[in-house]
Amino acid sequence: MRGYPKGRRRRAEIVEAAFAKFASIGYRNASMVQIAADCGVSQHGPGASLPTKEALLAAVLEERDRVNGELFFAGFDATADGLDYFSRLARLVEYNATVPELVRLYAVLSVEAADPAHPAHAYFVDRHAHIRRDIRDALEELHARGLVRPGTDIAGADSDLMALIDGLQVQWLLDRPAWTWVPACGSGLSEMLLVEVP
Amino acid sequence: MRGYPKGRRRRAEIVEAAFAKFASIGYRNASMVQIAADCGVSQHGPGASLPTKEALLAAVLEERDRVNGELFFAGFDATADGLDYFSRLARLVEYNATVPELVRLYAVLSVEAADPAHPAHAYFVDRHAHIRRDIRDALEELHARGLVRPGTDIAGADSDLMALIDGLQVQWLLDRPAWTWVPACGSGLSEMLLVEVP
User: Fold this and answer.
1) Is residue A2 packed enough to be buried (19+ CB in 10 Å), middle (13-18) or exposed (0-12)?
2) Rounded to two decimals, what is the model's pTM?
């Protein structure tokens, strides 16, 4: 196992370089030769000093999920406290506002990945389903506590809230100087959905 | 002016080929050589038989706006009748559900264009501002007629509704078989916003 910490550090550097390249020019446009050059390794074809581009993309997405999980959702169960869930979600959106390149990467990838042949297709289908399920669980928990505005139909609100966050982020990416508030946190729709908590 | 109809037809063919290529593999990945080959012309550099790639993108976006304008918004004033505006908008979303490649092109471009150096940056900033202004005008017209649910704050609802449509379209692109209804038309949020019209 000698050399393992060094190999792990080298892998982390490669994943970081791949993330920076994917976020700046997009996954499709990034080349393995550039990524190798950016972290000072030579590329002797896939499998030599670098994994495939698909494997690098998977590693980048996994790494970002790990960071977000630790920062906002570690060990968290959306069925336990809906208010806590939405407060974590709002903090995640606030954090996203500090990393526009990351938000851009996810926005481009989630559309590119609509092609079933795209290497991240299954990841994004799963990710959307997972987030929608958490939002639905949290809303149902709030509904059971009488914290959802009377007369509000929460069916479909999981897709709507996720769409709202994604769509506001696109508007924000396109014209950041025009946004003086954090996307989604200032949105009136979430306020329409939930009753005020004393 | 002899030959003008032929030149116009040839231009339309080139714009159509460029649209198909941009929609299938993305603007950044499309090459002028491929587009030229697809419509059976030879490419002797920009300005010879084909315009620049930037000019082709502008022509594609202008052509789609012309079609949408004629189908849904020709001569329409959003301040005149808010209900009519939202009914046209819902029909546009229904139409979009029949042209997924077009929706994908707009979704990818609107994120790529976040880069101020992108040739479509100004187009998308203007487009977002224009749509938000129309939604705001329509909501204010409805509000003046007492058709907005009492207690609803319509400030920011223009951004929210546009985000909702864009975000639901991304979910739909990613997993179309899972959607049995047209994105946005089935959304509960627009129903929450407007009172029922007798």
Assistant:
1) exposed
2) 0.81
